[in-house]
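so my prof wants the structure for this chain in the tokens format not the other one, which i didnt know existed until like an hour ago. anyway here's the sequence
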Amino acid sequence: EKQTEDNNSTECSKPGTMDLKFTSSRKYISISVPSKSQAMSPHIKSVDDIVVLGINLSKFSKPTQFFICVSGVFMFYLIYGYLQELIFSVEGFKPFGWYLTLVQFGFYSIFGLIELQLIQDKRRRIPGKTYMIIAFLTVGTMGLSNTSLGYLNYPTQVIFKCCKLIPVMIGGVFIQGKRYNIVDVSAALCMSLGLIWFTLADSTVAPNFNLTGVVLISLALCADAVIGNVQEKAMKLHNGSNSEMVLYSYSIGFVYILFGLTCTSGLSPAVTFCSKHPVQTYGYAFLFSLTGYFGISFVLALIKIFGALLAVTVTTGRKAMTIVLSFLFFAKPFTLQYVWSGLLVVLGIFLNVYSKNMDKFKLPSLLGLWKKSVEERKSRTLSQTV
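here's what i got, hopefully its the right format
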């Protein structure tokens, strides 16, 4: 009996082992803890994996991840902007901005359906009523934005898109009664002055400038400011996925636009025109939609890995590059007033980002810089004396 007890104690003393056995004389427990690789099925990806377009970014180092994300954002969104302006440069296409949005929504719905089939959980988590609201706002954002290109230069439209903070702050003051600090107010003031200056320059040098385009892009900006909050709240409340959001919001929006074009008799002329230029319309629209869909995937990965601060910096640089390429590839009048007003908008964006991250970094004050210079002089004098 003593020998049996010794054997049992030896078996129980093995690390990580506890097995439940029953014998005639005694019982003991043994637990075996599986390794990390055995704990998860090989068919299920790790929750920490970040996969973009089939590339598992988690396998790379941080600098490599940053390079891949930034390259993806710049490459796809620069092509996106180029194709968007190229479509509207087709002679006679400018009145069909809503039809382009209809085609774009159709492609986005297909892409979202394909992506949804590749994930395991295909259930719809967000209620249909919420998707109807999101789809309406999405139609307003993208439809009005595309239509405004029939009246504005592409750089002017991009500058307006950079200033989403202005309608957000106005809505926060009048709807929620929010109060903003001096940095937020300064950011909105810089953006407003930059927008006014850029628009005045556009009206001076552009022969086909139309105030209707300013109204359309302003309404699109207001819808864009609202839709982000609604999407974020819905996805957090119901734990919805990005592919689900894309599929249902764009498919319902497709129905909205189709119904609107049918009622206003705008569908038939657009279809007739595009059937005469299929490559310049449907072909470019497919690539335009595909690059936009891929671009947002890299932006989301950039936010998840490095945070919103760095993501905003990268996307702002991308928009600046888009404006530069627009002047290079498409003939349009240019004035230095575009440069100064654009820099003023960039300053407003920087102040907005700084306001949201004041606890992470602080700008040096003039008093602090003065004290630092005085201390450096004292230390230099002391070292010379020694």
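also thought this was worth mentioning. The two ends are 84 Å apart (CA to CA).
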